[in-house]
Design goal:
Layout (H helix, E strand, L loop, with lengths): L7 E4 L2 E13 L5 E8 L7 E6 L4 E7 L10 E15 L8 E8 L5 E8 L2 E10 L4 E4 L3 H33 L10 H10 L6 H7 L4 E2 L7 E5 L3 H11 L6 E7 L2 E7 L3 E7 L5 E7 L21 H12 L5 H11 L25 H10 L2
Antiparallel strand pairs: 1-2, 1-10, 2-3, 2-6, 3-4, 4-5, 5-9, 6-7, 7-8, 8-9, 11-12, 12-16, 13-14, 14-15, 15-16
Helix pairs in contact: 4-5, 4-7, 5-6
């Protein structure tokens, strides 16, 4: 049971619109669940639909006043939830964590949730519902209109932001000499500073150590004389850590890194001759030469080290690559090369060897 954002739902006969969708994973286990933030035509106040166990467990809740469950409720579950996927109009980000407590009434039909997001508590109260009471409303024209309105607002907001940034830049630079001497690298550094980092295709086109090859259908193809792990680190840095997911996939019997950004996906595939091939696809392109995988539902196929590094880059942490590599070394007895905090430089490397799955995964993301 899965629903896309801005589609209509009917729950127990009442109409809702899916405004946001968040995937969660329990930090200490493989438990996963999805929460849908629902709105109505009358109000944007969120009603939360939580679905777990493949649709066997469903609950509907709204914001509650107070931080304590009603008398007679007992603690049913607790732990740490990690955001693994976000869509729609949401403030959540991949990698966010929160402590949670789930309480239930004595008969198990009513629920009360307490979440602690970095010291900020939020509570919701609700009840369990049957999966058969939830159905997609394919005829909802209101949902489609909301989707169009939201998309237009996003486009206009970004356009206004870009115009304001450009205007501000030239206002500042007009106070100094040499405004026309602003080179491409300075411009991209400024974009990163104001929170508008590279897109993947810009990073691959600008860096001198990537060679663009002939396109294959809707995908752009690049090659580099570097190993897959070094390329992944470079792209994460170029995007200021703004990646949604980094997973491992099998392409033509080779284990490839799949780096997912907001609008693009890069398949980073080691070649037998020691080079690495990068296949860049638009997430909206239906005819990519390598199938675009859906966002991972669990951490099973995720590259945890590269995800931790992306989180460090996003936070502005200055420990650099040594931090995540040190964590990985502490967690595993497999030796790794000594890391450096130096910037990525183009250098030929040996091809990724065929080895056990664990050793090959480490070689992919810790080669630098």
């Amino acid at each position: 049971m899965d629903f896309d954002c801005w589609t209509g739902l009917r729950i127990e006969g009442k109409s809702y619109i899916v405004a946001e969708k968040i995937h969660y994973k329990e930090k200490t286990s493989d438990d996963v669940w999805t929460e849908y933030g629902l709105i109505t035509t009358e109000s944007n106040a969120r009603t939360w639909l939580s679905i777990s166990d493949g649709g066997l467990s469903c609950s509907l809740s709204t914001a509650a006043v107070g931080s304590k469950p009603p008398r007679g409720y007992y603690l049913h579950d607790s732990g740490t939830q990690v955001v693994t996927g976000v869509w729609g109009d949401t403030d959540a980000s991949v990698g966010d964590e929160a402590k949670y407590e789930q309480y239930e009434s004595a008969d198990g039909t009513a629920t009360f949730f307490v979440e602690n997001w970095s010291g900020t508590k939020s509570c919701s109260a609700g009840r369990k519902i049957a999966a058969t009471d939830i159905a997609a409303d394919e005829t909802s024209t209101v949902a489609r209109l909301r989707n169009l309105t939201f998309s237009m607002k996003q486009v206009l907001s970004k356009a206004a932001g870009y115009v304001a940034i450009v205007f501000g830049v030239f206002c500042v630079l007009s106070l100094f000499d040499g405004v026309t001497d602003l080179d491409a690298r300075s411009w991209h550094n400024f974009r990163s500073f104001v929170g508008v980092p590279y897109a993947l295709h810009e990073r691959l086109s600008d860096a001198p150590y990537y060679t663009e090859e002939q396109d294959e259908g809707a995908a752009r193809i690049y090659t580099a004389q570097m190993d897959a792990g070094t390329i992944a680190l470079d792209l994460i840095e170029g995007l200021d850590g703004e990646v949604q997911d980094v997973t491992l996939d099998t392409v033509d019997a080779e284990v490839a890194l799949v780096l997912r950004a907001r609008m693009e996906i890069a398949h980073i595939v080691p070649a037998p001759d020691g080079t690495t091939r990068i296949v860049l696809s638009d997430v909206r392109a239906p005819s990519a030469p390598i199938p675009i995988p859906p966002p991972a539902e669990t951490y099973r196929d995720r590259d945890a080290v590269l995800l931790r590094y992306a989180a460090l880059v996003r936070s502005g942490n200055e420990r650099g690559r040594t931090a995540v590599v040190a964590e990985d070394e502490a967690a595993s007895p497999i030796p790794t090369p000594t890391p450096t905090a130096a910037p990525v430089t183009p250098a030929p490397t040996e091809s990724v060897p065929h080895a056990t799955d664990g050793a090959l995964r480490r070689n992919l993301h810790l080669a630098n």
